[in-house]
TrEMBL record:
Pfam families in UniProt: MFS_1
Protein name per Swiss-Prot or TrEMBL: Predicted arabinose efflux permease, MFS family
Organism of this sequence: Blastococcus aurantiacus
Coiled-coil blocks: none
Chain ranges passing through the membrane: 12-31, 43-68, 80-100, 106-129, 141-161, 167-183, 212-229, 245-265, 272-290, 296-319, 331-353, 359-377
Protein location: Cell membrane
GO cellular component: plasma membrane
UniProt entry keywords in alphabetical sequence: Cell membrane, Membrane, Transmembrane, Transmembrane helix
Topological type in the membrane: Multi-pass membrane protein
Region described as Disordered: spans on this chain: 377-407
UniProt GO molecular function: transmembrane transporter activity
Length: 407
């Protein structure tokens, strides 16, 4: 795609558009599988183990797309990466909508989930090129909270259109294309220089050992609620579809609060922010296991988990930027891949535990993994994000490393 720079582009515009892209690619195309799992299990006869394997496929697609997106962003093609994200999400949603068998459903979930993998690096680069440096950390956190908005939208669809999951996924595809176009029009796509030969994925990996371990463990723990949360409330808890749909809205709405992760990091430091986020997510997961048949307990549990999940992913963004300030998009990509690898492993493992024994036991195990991830927090008090020297380059006026490859 040809590059261009829109002089009318502003920070608030790109933040709103970026939030919408995250809402579709993450909240709907990626996590919509867990929302509609009860319907999918009924339509395709999925066991708990198979359901976990299908979810893992979507997470694997995310990782593959993130690797490709890193190379595209590193070569100065952030705009093309954005369209890769929106196009993949839309195509995958259409495949899910027309699925006539479990393998087709699995393929659709894989393609739909891959859109989120390309969305994060594209939007990190877009925000960095458009938003003033002083507001960038906060803007990245707000864009990241779009997951919650998408989850709310999905829950409302379950409430208003029960049983119409095929048409809902068609709608996801259409909205995905529209919000991608909006983000494309509002971002300032500068002439980012390709990454230098010396800028390889080895550099971020060397510096990201501790946060990468934390991301994998947290991802494995978070797979419990995202993949099996609504199914647990419907199957084990016996709650009706309208109630579980409303509770999913609570999960998403609470996720919007996680957009303040940038403020939390700035005031409390990385160590406290990470420990608090994963502890609250673990508590919410355990509480859901204890009371899946109670609307009140489930609402509190999902509110805790929703806010904490978005916060911990936002903390990972700040953590990566703190470890490698000159390659924030690259660091974000590595850590989000780690988070997703953890979710894939967790979906398979927890699905096996739920299928072979107790679903509640699987959720308690997930909570334990989240608490365990707190041990990987920074040994000190944590530092606030450092920013590399500002060296004007191209239309964006940023360092060329801002678009460095992710891997």
């Amino acid at each position: 795609m040809p590059k261009r720079s829109l002089q009318r582009a502003t920070g608030p515009q790109v933040v709103a558009a970026g939030l919408a892209v995250i809402a579709v690619t993450y909240g709907l195309a990626r996590y919509g599988y867990g929302l509609y799992l009860p319907e999918f299990r009924t339509a395709f006869g999925l066991s708990a183990g198979t359901a976990g394997a299908v979810a893992a496929g979507g997470y694997a697609g995310y990782c593959a797309a993130a690797l490709l997106a890193g190379r595209l962003v590193g070569g100065g093609h952030a705009r093309a990466t954005l369209w890769l994200a929106g196009g993949s999400a839309a195509l995958g949603c259409l495949l899910v909508a027309v699925a006539w068998s479990a393998p087709v459903l699995a393929g659709g979930a894989l393609v739909a989930g891959s859109g989120a993998g390309a969305a994060t690096p594209a939007l990190v680069a877009a925000v960095a090129a458009t938003v003033p440096p002083a507001a960038e950390t906060r803007a990245q956190g707000v864009v990241n909270s779009g997951t919650g908005a998408g989850v709310v939208a999905g829950g409302l669809l379950v409430l208003t259109l029960p049983g119409s999951w095929r048409w809902s996924w068609v709608g996801f595809a259409v909205v995905g294309v529209l919000v991608t176009w909006w983000a494309d029009r509002t971002a300032r796509w500068g002439s980012a220089a390709p990454a230098s030969r010396g800028s390889t994925g080895a550099r971020p990996l060397r510096r990201l050992g501790r946060p990468l371990v934390a991301a994998v463990l947290a991802g494995a723990g978070c797979a419990g609620v995202w993949t099996f949360g609504r199914d647990l409330m419907a199957d084990q808890g016996g709650l009706p579809d309208r109630v579980t749909g409303l509770l999913w809205c609570v999960l998403g709405a609470a996720g919007l609060l996680g957009g303040g992760s940038g403020v939390l990091v700035a005031r409390a430091g990385l160590r406290a922010a990470w420990t608090c986020s994963v502890a609250v997510a673990g508590a919410g997961t355990a509480l859901l296991a204890a009371g899946p048949d109670s609307t009140v307990l489930a609402a509190v549990a999902l509110a805790c988990f929703g806010a904490a999940f978005v916060a911990l992913s936002g903390v990972l963004l700040a953590w990566g930027a703190d470890r490698d300030p000159a390659a924030a998009p690259a660091a974000a990509g590595v850590l989000f891949i780690g988070l997703t690898v953890g979710q894939a492993l967790g979906a398979v493992l927890l699905g096996a535990v739920a299928g072979g024994g107790s679903a509640a036991a699987a959720f308690y195990a997930a909570a334990g993994l989240l608490v365990l991830s707190a041990g990987a927090a920074e040994p000190g008090t944590g530092s606030r994000r450092r920013r590399p020297p500002s060296t004007p380059s191209g239309a964006s006026g940023r360092c060329p490393e801002a678009a460095e490859r992710m891997v």
